[in-house]
Amino acid sequence: MTWVHGEAFIQCLYIVAFALFIYGLMGLTGPYTAVRGNKLAALGMGIAIIATLLTPGMGNWWLIVLGVALGAAVGVPAARRVRMTAMPQMVALFNGVGGGAIALIAWVEFRHSDGFSSRPEYVAIASLFAAIVGSISFWGSTIAFGKLQEIMPGRPISVGRLQQPLNLLMLLVAVAFGVIVVAGGQSGWLMVGLLVTASMLGVLIVLPIGGADMPVVISLLNAATGLSAAAMGLALDNTALIVAGMIVGASGSILTNLMAKAMNRSIPAIVAGGFGGNGGGGGAVEAGDRSVRRTSAADAAIQLAFARQVIVVPGYGLAVAQAQHAVRQLTGLLEQKGVSVAYAIHPVAGRMPGHMNVLLAEADVPYEHLKEMDSINDEFARTDVTLVIGANDVTNPAARTDPSSPIYGMPILNVDESRSVIVLKRSMRPGFAGVDNELYFDPRTSLLFGDAKSSVHDITEELKAL
């Protein structure tokens, strides 16, 4: 059975694994193939792990098995029990763990090679790059998790004008430690100093970023983890790490760029922070001298029942209330009455990429009913009623009309062009950007206050009675 440990056989396994990675990633482009895509990618990772373990001189198998068992014991129950509302923070946390693992591997390599003295120079450079980026990803993801989980304030936290100089200082110090190591420094404190300063940089980068930018931050940190894994794979001569890391890094970078464009913001501006407070914190923001028009479940039901076309705009409020199944029941009842129903999905609605798509797919909403912003924006002018559930900043007309608004220039859903708008909200608190939504004061808009799930249920019951 020596052929099992042969180089040719191991490389063949890697090729099969990488093909499954790519084919699995292709499956994630649509909900009908996403489950299969995930399974294929998982199978590919399993084959890659087997190929790595078959490599001669791999080490203590029992220790490896113990590590896999402990990881599975923690990860599987956490993934199965997490609620959809907590999915963004789980993604942030699990992604951060990957970056932290890469940083620890770099540290171990430093110690086992006497400060990389017995390794080629490119191995030292790749390992130190992986250590810096992995540490930034781990601690940045930890802060993102804390903000999303509301363990810490979701608003931007910074030191004002000193923020960017401080970030630059931490980066330069981390790089300086790395240069000294590459130049021949073997003190363990050099590596500790690099990891600590890189960790501080990760914290300092994410702290000033508000909730409105958090979906982009999660995607950006995911890309960073992928790049650190690829660099570590180069240092270890591990093909699986190189390919998987590059796939994650490339896809994460593309997604980050697309989401930044959807918010009309540059990635450097997002990293600079300062945009987007947490609309869920603090006291309620009142409308001041301006008044809003309230409605009831009965009136909302009448409007929806006599409409020809209805568009539902889901947001984070739908996720918090776990209202996706109630909304599906409501729209199903409307369809039985002959009403045309579609869902308008903004690219950054919710707290992570694709958040609304995942929630609605869980409620068995047909994929063809989910319309992206660019494909549905022209439909609002022909829509009788638009039902907005918890979406705030992505429906705010100030993004088009108010140059002084922090969201000015951000592409939004053209909800204000509808003949009538019904908004389900808990209160008049603003969204993540911390600004009032001008849509709420439009004469064609009426607000139904309360928990989104309860409000949708009440509207459904009134519809049944009509």
List keywords for this structure.
alpha/beta; six-stranded parallel beta sheet; 58% helix
Quick overview of this protein structure:
58% of the residues lie in helices and 6% in strands. The chain is of the alpha/beta class. Helix 1 (7-27) runs parallel beside helix 9 (239-262) and helix 11 (297-305) crosses helix 17 (452-465).
Strand order of the largest sheet: 3-2-1-4-5-6
Number of strands: 6
Termini Cα gap: 74 Å
Secondary structure class reads alpha/beta
Shape label: globular
Ranges with pLDDT <50 over ≥5 residues?
A: 278-287
Helix content: 55-70%
Radius of gyration: 25 Å
Strand content: 5-15%
Mean pLDDT: 85
Work out the helix count: 17
Oligomer: single chain
H/E series:
HHHHHHHHHHHEHHEHEHEHEEH
Largest β-sheet summary = 6 strands, parallel
Folded structure, characterized:
The chain is built from 17 helices and 6 strands. The protein has 466 residues and is α/β, with parallel strands linked by helices. The protein has a 6-stranded parallel beta sheet. Strand 4, helix 16 and strand 5 form a beta-alpha-beta unit. The longest helix is centred in the N-terminal third of the chain and has 28 residues.
